[in-house]
Amino acid sequence: MTGLDQHLPALQVAVPMVASAFVVLLNPKGLAWAATTAVSAMSFAIAIQLTMLVTAGTPLTYAMGSWPAPFGIALEVDSLSALLLLVITGASTIALIGARASIDAQIAADRQIYFYSAWLLAVAGLAGIVVSADAFNIFVFMEISSLASYVLIAGGPDRRALPAVFKYLIMGTIGATFYLIGVGLIYMMTGTLNLADMELRIAGVSDQRPILAAAGFITVGLALKAAVFPLHIWLPNAYTYAPHMVTAFLAACATKVSLYVLLRFDFFVFQQNLDGHTFQFAAYLMPLAILGILVGSAVAMFEGNLKRLLAFSSVAQIGYIMLGASLLSAAGLTAGIVHIFNHALAKGALFLALGAFALACTSLRFETIGGIARAMPWTFGAFVLAGLSLIGVPGTAGFISKWHLIGAAMELGPPGLALVAVILISSLMAVVYIWRIVEAACFGAAPADFPDVRVPPLLVTMIWVAAITNIVFGLVPDLPLELSRDAAASLLGHVK
Fold first, then answer.
1. 409: which of 186, 305, 432, 463 lies 20 to 30 Å off by Cα?
2. Half-sphere exposure of 40 (CA within 13 A, CB side)
3. Is the Cβ–Cβ distance between 186 and 214 less than 8 Å?
4. Are residues 139 and 121 in contact, defined by beta-carbon separation less than 8 angstroms?
5. Could you count the other beta carbons within 10 Å of the beta carbon of residue 260?
6. Cα 194 to chain center, whole Å?
7. Which of 374, 365, 343 is nearest to 466 (CA)?
8. Contact 469/397 with Cβ under 8 angstroms?
9. Nearest in space to 121 (alpha carbons), one of 231, 183, 36, 8
């Protein structure tokens, strides 16, 4: 690998991070939006090129300052990293392209340059977590993305976002502190922060209590940041009261990145070194995953706010990912990892559509969206398409995830039938809460003063791009499945 390609892992982080400092100098708000969108699109292009290199079998390791690991800081991109980078940068780009009108309506003009700067910092931080091969730098990027996310969520006009952000800040800080304590304990016992070197050195001290405590701290801390049930209490309000395009961006990727780090540590670092950790991992995650799927879906069925409904749906979808990981098989991990990608497609499109609905509705509640299907037929059509993917209807990306998850559960024999029942029941629950929205939008009484709002063409286009990807990757799922299978094989390759 020669030329610019060898620097792409570093550029994936450096481009949005450097650009975030210059966006604040662009006073015209339209110019700031255009620059931010262009930088995000550039980051997406870098992620696509990295994915092409990974699928071609090219090793992607970058030594910062030419200092080789473990003495220097290393960046690495493999199949799992590439999948997450596509999700992060793709979600950011699609949301930004369609975001202009929504952001102008929700963010004060004099604050938009800072809002866009925080957006790029969030992209840089999330990408940095994914490409970093160093435990402490994962923490650094985790804090960058978290601080930027707090600014984005609190940036809208709804003052209820402030207590939501405060709760998110407290819970996120606890999670990050747990993670850092765990990393500190590992460093105390091994003297290294490089993940690959850490894996080798832990083998000599795996029976020591600090390592056992580190596994607990890191797993719980990352589960909290990933909103794994029942550590999800910060997520519903954060998604509900954030600006609409921010929700579309963060719902697609923020929790997925924490799940990525959780899988990295529990499979890459701990699994082959801690006696009984494999069983503990499954015993800890599987019940929580099942409860998350059922409770999240059940609450969504009775929720009255559309954004909050989809937020609780995300708790259930995170449960699907964790259920696949808890099966500790190639099929289960593949299903869980591909659902990271497919859920991002569906949930990103759904929240984008809600952002368009908000241009005409006084609030995103069932009693205020009557007639929206007639007022915005194209936008509503894309919403229904994404909803079908969330349910898991054949021909959509969501079906691919659930089909592979059912297959992985069936490998367990008779006990797997209970898991299949959970998956099918939760899919029926998804039918109920998606139908509630469709029924209210199509058959609900429209307000007498319903405004005649024309959705910006760019926003409609991006909503349909996001919705159609659910069909494309439902009919031709080769790329995400290939990356997921490679990622699953790599993770399981570290388990004895």
1. 432
2. 30
3. yes
4. no
5. 25
6. 24
7. 343
8. yes
9. 36
CB-count exposure of residue 346 (10 Å: 0-12, 13-18, 19+): buried
**Can you give the chain as a three-state secondary structure string?**
CCHHHHHHHHHHHHHHHHHHHHHCCCCCHHHHHHHHHHHHHHHHHHHHHHHHHHHCCCCEEEEHHHCCCCCCCEEEECHHHHHHHHHHHHHHHHHHHCCHHHHHHHCCHHHHHHHHHHHHHHHHHHHHHHHECEHHHHHHHHHHHHHHHHHHHHCCCCCCHHHHHHHHHHHHHHHHHHHHHHHHHHHHHHCCCEHHHHHHHHHHHCCCHHHHHHHHHHHHHHHHHCCCCCCCCCHHHHHHHCCHHHHHHHHHHHHHHHHHHHHHHHHHHHCCCCCCHHHHHHHHHHHHHHHHHHHHHHHHHHCCEHHHHHHHHHHHHHHHHHHHHHCCCHHHHHHHHHHHHHHHHHHHHHHHHHHHHCCCCCCCEHHHCCCHHHHCHHHHHHHHHHHHHHHCCCCCHHHHHHHHHHHHHHCCCHHHHHHHHHHHHHHHHHHHHHHHHHHHHHHCCCCCCCCCCCCCHHHHHHHHHHHHHHHHHHHCCHHHHHHHHHHHHHHHCCCC
Which carries the bigger pLDDT value, residue 331 or residue 496?
Answer: 331
Q: Are 443 and 325 in contact (CB under 8 A)?
A: no
pLDDT of residue 415: 81
What are the structure tokens assigned to 370, written together? 């009557």
Position of tokens 């499109």?
349
Instruction: Return the biggest CA–CA distance within the chain.
Output: 73
Q: Give the amino acid at 320.
A: Y
Q: What is the pLDDT of residues 363-405, one digit of tens each?
A: 788 888 887 888 888 888 999 999 999 998 998 998 999 999 9
Q: Where do we find the tokens 């102008």?
A: 104
pLDDT band at 416 (very low <50, low <70, confident <90, very high): confident
Residue bearing the bigger pLDDT, 405 or 268 = 405
Q: Tell me the average pLDDT across 179-197.
A: 86
The strand pairing partners of 75, in sequence order, are: 62, 132
Do the Cβ atoms of 384 and 438 come closer than 8 Å? yes
Each residue's pLDDT tens digit, 428-454: 999 999 998 998 888 877 666 666 667
